[in-house]
Write a structure and sequence with these properties.
It contains 9 helices and 18 strands. By secondary structure, the protein is an alpha+beta fold. The chain has 2 domains: about 160 residues, 3-Layer(bba) Sandwich (FAD/NAD(P)-binding domain); about 100 residues, Polyamine Oxidase, Chain A, domain 2, CATH 3.90.660. The strands form 5 sheets. The chain has a 6-stranded mixed sheet, with helices on both faces. Strands 13-14-15-12-16 form a 5-stranded antiparallel sheet.
């Protein structure tokens, strides 16, 4: 590659992709991001539902995140000062949530990048000048480097025609699914705890309205276990709602009022596997991969993977022009 700033495309504007973009941008490279969603969030998304008592919001993906490493902890502390995150102590002494929704940190990071939303990338196209991204909108401009920052199974499809070794790594990482139900009520449920986990059908239940900065309307997020979700992944959403509501009622040990609004969401790629690579980078082709699946199923792991890939790109002779 020629010396000087590189043109970098990042497929996926989740935590890993945004962390990678931020570090590459600070190093002077030109980054453009593409994401199939209509806005920031991914597995840290916030969903809004209309109810007779007003709008209800739900963190229907990641429920909270923790900090273990100094670099990510420093970033979270800055977000805290800026009012973007807040502690959620009922989930643990080191549990943090976005404010007013889990996607708040991603919105802050995305506001500093050039992101094309609602743009599913279907293929990577190589020519003599570099890489183009193929989609239903046609082909993108030319890039020197493409970073794939999406779930492992989806990354494998994009990488397979060009980087079989990277694709094989991605294909070997299996992400667990999760059915999630969002329910709003016109009264506080007679459940003392704000969070409950269970090894059975109902893997997680949380009073979403107990998080900092949320509206007072009683809202709950119910997430089925990975095993149940996998066995029932093609079930109708209405049936899933009834099953998870019944599981919550059994957990409460009493009859509960019917929700005033309810919706189910099927996460086909919810909880990543754990890996040891940190990030994947091929200087020969200019293709790289980052994501939580390369480290572990935590938000911080996604951040660490994105930063690790950016570091490899910046330090590598083919990228830096050294």
């Amino acid at each position: 590659m020629a010396q000087g700033p590189k043109r970098v495309a990042i497929v996926g504007a989740g935590m890993a992709g945004l962390a990678c973009a931020a570090k590459l941008g600070r190093a002077g490279h030109a980054v453009q991001m593409f994401d199939k969603a209509r806005g920031p969030g991914g597995r840290m998304s916030t969903r809004r539902l209309n109810t007779p008592l007003g709008e209800a919001s739900f963190d229907h993906g990641a429920q909270y995140f923790t900090t273990r490493g100094d670099r990510f902890r420093s970033r979270v502390e800055r977000w805290s000062v800026e009012g973007i995150v807040a502690p959620w102590l009922v989930a643990g002494p080191d549990a943090w949530v976005g404010v007013p929704g889990m996607n708040a940190p991603l919105r802050a990071l995305a506001s500093e990048q050039t992101v094309t939303w609602d743009h599913p990338v279907e293929a990577l196209l190589a020519d003599g000048q570099g890489w183009r991204l193929g989609s239903q909108r046609g082909q993108s401009g030319i890039f020197d480097v493409v970073v794939v920052a999406i779930p492992a199974e989806q990354a494998a499809v994009l990488l397979a025609p060009h980087e079989p070794a990277l694709a094989a790594k991605a294909a070997g990482s299996r992400t667990q699914p999760c059915w999630t139900v969002m329910a709003a009520f016109d009264q506080r449920l007679p459940i003392e705890t704000d969070v409950a986990s269970d090894p059975g059908l109902l893997g997680w239940a949380a009073r979403n309205s107990s998080k900092h900065g949320r509206a007072k309307l009683e809202t709950w997020v119910l997430q089925a276990s990975s095993d149940w979700s996998r066995d029932h992944i093609e079930d109708p959403a209405d049936a899933v709602c009834e099953v998870l509501l019944e599981a919550l009622q059994q957990r409460a040990g009493r009859n509960l009022p019917r929700p005033i609004a309810i919706q189910a969401h099927r996460w086909r790629y919810a909880r990543s596997a754990s890996g040891t690579d940190g990030a994947l980078w091929s200087p020969q082709t200019g293709l790289g991969c980052c994501g939580d699946w390369l480290i572990g199923p935590r938000v911080e792991c996604a951040w660490d993977s994105g930063e690790a890939l950016a570091s490899q790109l910046i330090a590598g002779p083919a990228f830096s022009g050294a």
